[in-house]
Write a structure and sequence with these properties.
By secondary structure, this protein is mostly beta strands. The protein has one domain. It contains 1 helix and 18 strands. The strands form 3 sheets. Strands 1, 3, 4, 6, 7, 9, 10, 12, 14 and 16 form a 10-stranded parallel sheet that branches. A 6-stranded parallel sheet has the order 2-5-8-11-13-15, with no helix packed on it. It is globular, with a radius of gyration of 15 Å. The termini are far apart.
Length: 140
């Protein structure tokens, strides 16, 4: 009971992933998925998922991510939009602006950017991080 330390490594909600970019793999493009996505290699491009997106310990994403929930143990260089919980683990790094409903950063995790928390707007829209480094939210 007292001897067990809570793990600060990747602890994910889902064991089933529909899309996996494995360690030692590089890929570029855009991913649109209705399922869960896991990145353990290097990926350049945007990711949009109706499920969970997991960036593993060795994972690196250069692009924007939109998902129901997101877990970061590796590095993300881009904006994040999360309808649920964004978790940044002890070795995780997020360099970019975020719009989230909930945020958890484990000691050692790094977040550099602007954060907007609370109710999500269905007409939200990110500008490209490299263009203007801002988030634009469109109201009806």
């Amino acid at each position: 009971m007292f001897g067990n330390k809570k793990s600060t490594t990747t602890n994910h909600h889902s064991d089933k992933f529909d899309t996996i970019i494995a360690n030692n793999t590089s890929m570029s493009g855009n991913i649109n998925s209705e399922g869960n996505v896991r990145i353990d290699g290097s990926y350049k491009g945007d990711i949009e998922s109706y499920g969970e997106v997991v960036i593993g310990d060795n994972g690196f994403v250069k692009g924007n991510i939109k998902a129901q929930s997101i877990c970061v143990s590796g590095k993300v260089d881009g904006n994040i939009e999360c309808d649920g919980l964004l978790e940044i683990y002890s070795h995780g790094v997020v360099d970019g602006d975020i719009i989230v409903k909930s945020l958890s950063i484990v000691e050692g995790g790094i977040f550099n950017g602007k954060c907007n928390m609370g109710a999500m707007n269905s007409n939200r829209n990110f500008e490209d991080k490299n263009d203007n480094e801002t988030i634009e939210i469109m109201e009806e």
